[in-house]
Amino acid sequence: CGVRHVRARARLLAVVATIAAGAVGIISSTQTWLVATLSDGAQDGLLVAGAAALPVLAPLSLAALALGLALTIVGRVLRYVFGALSLAMGGVLAVLTAQVAFSPSASHVGSTVTEATGITGADAVAALVSEITATPWPAITLVGWIVLLAAGALTLATAHTWRGTGRRYRTDAAPAAVAAPSRPHDAIDDWDDLSRGDDPTA
Q1: What angle, 0 to 180 degrees and rounded to 10, lies between the N-to-C axes of helices 137-158 and 57-70?
Q2: Is pLDDT of 117 > 90?
Q3: Residue 186 contacts by C-beta under 8 Å, 6 or more apart in sequence?
Q4: Cβ neighbour number for residue 25 with a 10 Å cutoff
Q5: Is the pTM value of this prediction over 0.85?
Q6: How far apart are alpha carbons 48 and 51 in whole angstroms?
Q7: Which of 22, 45, 75, 118 could bond 64 through an S-S bridge, CB–CB 3.0 to 4.6 Å?
Q8: Is residue 150 a contact partner of residue 175, using CB atoms and an 8 Å limit?
């Protein structure tokens, strides 16, 4: 019973952590990550959203969220695949987010500056920006990616112990072959037959 509890807890932690990390990334993509001050003083500080500072933030966060949801139903092989994907995405996002959090550059605010001023070109934008200040959101999101890395590692380490998916997700007819004949066929058996694609009236 204790072993079963540990297995269920490991699976729950991995799923919840993956979903939570993806949700943090999605929310963060709409928040202000950077404030860019222009050297000409023509504008107040430009607010740069997470999705603008890091274009891959929103799509990869959605992917992490989808992985977490899918972990609740997939079989053993896909658990390892999804665990590896979580590690890969968490690593990439952690590195990119850390760059924005600790050493933001003109490339991170380029699209926002161009939209506000009409000035294009990396050199021109860099010359126009006098200061870039990071808000707490990149650091908060970085913690989320560390959690995603931990969830991926936990998935890879414990996936072989997770309980299999319910019979409703199985397509094989093996359980029907070993059904005990010790009781009459009832309505529940008919529903089980239908879920396996068998004709209960046969």
Answers
A1: 30
A2: no
A3: none
A4: 28
A5: no
A6: 8
A7: 22
A8: no
**Buried residues in 142-169 as b, exposed as e (16+ CB within 10 A):** bebbebbbbbbebbbebbeebeeeeeee
* Cβ-contact 46, 110 below 8 angstroms: no
Residue 164: both structure tokens together: 């299999």
141: nearest Cα among 17, 15, 21, 30? 21
135-167 pLDDT per residue, tens: 999 999 999 999 999 999 999 999 888 876 554
Tokens found for residue 138: 């990149």
The one-letter amino acid at 175: P
Which strand ranges, in their side-by-side order, compose the sheet holding 32-38?
A: 46-49, 32-38, 129-134
Place of tokens 């600790």: 102
CA terminus-to-terminus distance, the chain: 40
3-state DSSP call for residue 195? helix
Does the pLDDT of residue 122 top 50, yes or no? yes
